[in-house]
Design a protein that fits this description.
alpha/beta, 2 domains, 8-stranded parallel sheet, 3-stranded antiparallel sheet, 14 helices, binds ligand TUI
Length: 319
């Protein structure tokens, strides 16, 4: 069985690996691509030089299709777009903004463009601008998020566009994948579960924190600054949320105070393993993840569980 999405991308399984900043390197993305999914290299706040290195790195590690994610809040975004367009990358996903003004460049380079959206309006705009597919991300996801849930937003986007829709946010196993398909998705994107993959270079402390997390262990920081981010709660988030509360009640909030608390915190969590003062971005399904597995096993689990779930429902509903 090969879906339209799998044919478009020449991949075996309709599972994308989210482009988590500091986590989604060439090791992780190539492992996902080699296992038949779509590995995606994250470029976060990277300089164009680092992006070029990352692309060379993944090309050396897989002959399978892979994607590169461009984070639109990156101050180097213009140069990063140019590097990506010049380096023979075939699939680009974008996040944290609208890639509208770069669409012509991507298309001229023959790139398949798959923007991440958090609203119906942006999904429509992206389809009009030439997006080949759309990733719909609900606020169950880790990292920078919109306001709607996957459950509510996904079917509304599916109804609004005619390109394939990939569901992201809150899909922690094959049951979630089946649910996304019931709502009209053509594929899924998985972040948090790949953070704890064997091939992920995320610090062992960060992986342990995800494995230990329960359902209520994520919080949303950054609502006041306009960049809401879902992370595992810890000392940093307690202090940050308190500071946010204090600044909210002021006539002119001290945004710099908040920015200073957040600066470098993601790197501290992922690279240094600082569970106390690091920003451990993770989705609400962290509580569902109980073991470190290879990317191959993660993908096989999603596919098998999804198929079993759908089979079970067919049996029930056809009685
Ligand atoms: O981009 C993500 N997740 C991310 S990016 C990131 S790096 C960062 N760190 C701190 C603060 C901000 C960013 C960490 N996690 N996911 C994709 C995503 N895109 N989620 C939500 C959106 C989004 C939100 C608003 C996309 C477009 C949008 O509106 C843009 C517009 O102009 O309408």
């Amino acid at each position: 069985m090969q879906s339209h999405l799998c044919k478009l991308l020449n991949i075996q399984y309709p599972i994308f690996q989210g482009a988590m900043a500091w986590v989604a390197d060439a090791d992780l993305a190539s492992a996902v691509s080699n296992a038949g999914g779509l590995g995606i290299v994250g470029t976060g706040h990277d300089t164009p030089e680092i992006v070029a290195e990352k692309i060379a790195d993944i090309k050396a590690k897989t002959t399978k299709p892979f994607g590169v994610n461009i984070m639109l809040l990156n101050p180097h975004v213009q140069e990063v777009v140019d590097v990506v367009c010049q380096s023979g990358v075939k699939v680009v996903t974008t996040g944290a903004g609208s890639p509208g003004k770069y669409m012509d460049k991507f298309k001229a380079a023959g790139i398949i463009v798959i923007p991440v959206v958090a609203s119906v309006a942006l999904a429509r705009r992206m389809e009009n601008d030439g997006a080949d597919a759309i990733i719909v991300e609900g606020m169950e996801a880790g990292g920078h998020i919109g306001k709607s849930t996957t459950m509510a937003l996904l079917p509304q986007v599916v109804d609004a566009v005619s390109v394939p829709v990939i569901a992201a946010g809150g899909i922690g196993d094959g049951r979630g994948m089946a649910a996304a398909y019931m709502l009209g998705a053509s594929g899924i994107q998985v972040g948090t579960r790949f953070v704890v993959a064997k091939e992920s270079n995320a610090h062992a402390n960060f992986k342990q924190a995800i494995l230990k997390a329960k359902d209520i262990d994520t919080v949303i920081t950054g609502q006041l600054t306009g960049h809401p981010v879902r992370v595992l709660r810890n000392k940093l988030t307690r202090e940050y949320l308190q500071a946010e509360k204090e600044e909210t009640s002021k006539e002119s909030p001290d945004f710099e105070r908040l920015e200073n608390m957040a600066r470098g915190a993601l790197r501290r969590a992922v690279v240094e393993g600082d569970k106390i003062r690091g920003s451990m971005m993770a989705g609400q399904i962290a509580g569902l993840i109980s073991k470190e597995q290879t990317c191959h096993d993660i993908i096989q689990d999603y596919m098998r569980e999804c198929s079993e779930t759908i089979q079970k429902q067919i049996e029930y509903w056809s009685k």
